[in-house]
Design goal:
Elements lengths: L13 E3 L28 H16 L4 H15 L1 E3 L3 H11 L7 E6 L17 E6 L5 E12 L4 E6 L10 E6 L3 E7 L3
Helix pairs in contact: 1-2
Length: 189
Amino acid sequence: MSGTLQVHAQAVVIDTISPPSTDTIATGISDSSSGAPGRSVTYGLKDMEFMELLRQVEGEAPDPARAVLSEGRKWVFEERGIIRGSCWDFVNEIFRRTGHVSNNRSIVFKGAVNGPYADPDLIRPGDWIYHRNYSYRNIPHSAIFIGWVDRDRRIAYTLSYAGEGRRSVARYLQYDLRKVYQIVRPGGI
């Protein structure tokens, strides 16, 4: 299925928090990161390996997905931008910042929260995915797909904002993507 995504106009509050000190960087990669304002996570070997993976995925992604991935990375690591809103608001803002407003997005797959669900072969880096969030009350969640960690088990890295109006920076985390029910691609298919 494909089509044009319709977006409702909505006020979004954008804020930033202080950048981390020079000896640490707030990555949000680790599940132990609270995302609290001003809190930093030590930038260790695991994080450096992830940053290399992120650069590789971004470098191999075709435009316009590359722009989405780059803007998301910039927002998290350089600007430390915060959306005081939902996960949907966060992904929408990244797409908006890269010029992918409602008339410049394509719906690659559209199911419903209770199914049908997308074939994982349809998902590409930079896609806006809607999925069931098994790690938080099995609720619907929006995120930007980064890449598979274990495709067979459908575990992948995404760039995700916790939502619920929290004052925290989005994070790169692993999610169980067995139930992806919508895929939106920046630009055309």
